[in-house]
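Example 3.2
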Amino acid sequence: MNGRLRYFPLMLLALALWLVAACAQPAETGSGAPPPADAPQPTQEAAATTEMSASTDRPWINLCESEPQAGGSITLAIADDAMVGRNWLARGSTNESFIFSQLVDLSIEDAETFEPDVASSWEISEDGLTYVYHLRDDVLWHDGEQLTAEDVKWTIEMVSHPDSGVTIRTVLPLDAIAGYEAFVQGEADEITGVQVLDDYTVQITLSAPRADFFYGMGGMNLYPKHIWEGIPFAEMTTSPYAREQVVGSGPFKMGEFVPDQYYILEAFDDYYKGRPYLDQLIFRIGLTSVASWMPGLESGEIQVGNMVNGLDRERVEANDALTVVGAPLPGAMSIWPNHRNFPDKRVLQALMYAIDREAITQGVYGPGQALPYDYDNVDPNHNWISPNINDYPYDVEKAKALLAEAGWDPNRELEFITYYQTELDRNVVAAMQQFWAEAGIKVNVAHMDAPSWAARVYEEPDYDLAYGCCGISVPFEYARYSCANVPPNGLNVSAYCNEEVDRLVQEAMVEPNAEARKQLWYRISEITNEEMLHLTLFQQDRRHAISKNVCNYQFRQWSNIVWPERNPHTWYLGQ
């Protein structure tokens, strides 16, 4: 299959996940086997991004007529918050693909295709318990050391350890690995289910089949054992290797860093997929609003801006030197309620009924910029969402009635926090605030920078309503919202807790029968829809504003856990 794997997260057979991995015909760069008869069939696709042809139906890539050429640098207004008050371990997900590599990559072309990365091929046993990853033998860390299976084992143990500060551990399926619990409880020095078979082969054995295991492993960055093994887990997030001296195996390595101004990523000459065309990526820090970076983009000082909507997008599209790159967001812009503060679900239901989402998408976003989103499903065609869920259509009288039934105090003021600070986002939030006021709900809005928002939400949850992205992208993400993951134990920052949902999620994860599993997901979606796990609002059309001469630039977002590979080593400056 030329190293591509069709992955069907919404039609998984939990005991037959191996069927997506072993190949019917061997290939040099990867392997995969025919999917089960009731799953969509795999397709052959060109593996090399540079070979893709221009197409108007692929707006997530900026294709140029000029041939790729080496050299030059681009300046980006999208500084990662790892360099602005946080660190590279704070999330540890694949949106840091400039610096880090993963075992496998989620394709930017569709959310059901995985491609080889550090793992060139893989096999999954017929009982769904054993995963064997075969690694490339030409992958180097940025300091020149070889990446081996020992690094993969170390990474899994480092990410799993509760003191390491790698926060994505709570949403990855690592707890399915045999020996995981003994390791995290301090009863063992290693995760026994992760075995190094030789320098370039690692075997992972699960305690029980898990439908999300292969998918989740695509969301884990790899870390160098020789750098990290001498640092105590509790000191990792404060180590310089977690920030300005970070070492990865991706296409770019850390260069100069001037706090509060910029940091530079330098091309890694020995990158295993080939040296990047660009010499440098210069990330400007502090350009958080369109107004702060748009003049630089228009003058040519900046080549890559951030997301644009509404009038800002029209301004970009009217400029012959600029373009927009991206696609509609599969998930929803959502409100995360702090369930600690809402013991009566009727109040949350009233908040949802009170918002006229159609009016906001048409009158504030503008036609074609966003759509009302009815639930946390990636695609309306996906079959894990019950047909019986409530879409909560706009009904202000219904909202008032629910508030009255709940004994709502009209003098209570709710705090709504958001890090979205563009004029458009402020107008969207102001419109919601007005709709709530009409229903008798007072809401105070706080616009803050991303690190401050993250501290309020993730570190010491202290809010009523938080506005963010992207909801639930695939069904097993429900596991994130278990009672066991309420902070400080995990990232269930909404503190949603329903033991019946926890039980149903665990049953669905291992249910071998497709129809029975679907019915379990149906019941889970019905309960969480009624109890307002999230208030799902809008599907945005997310696009970056860039200079047209940044060729092969790619941007698309599937979820917040596993991001598609953006192939930055293929970006180049066109004529």
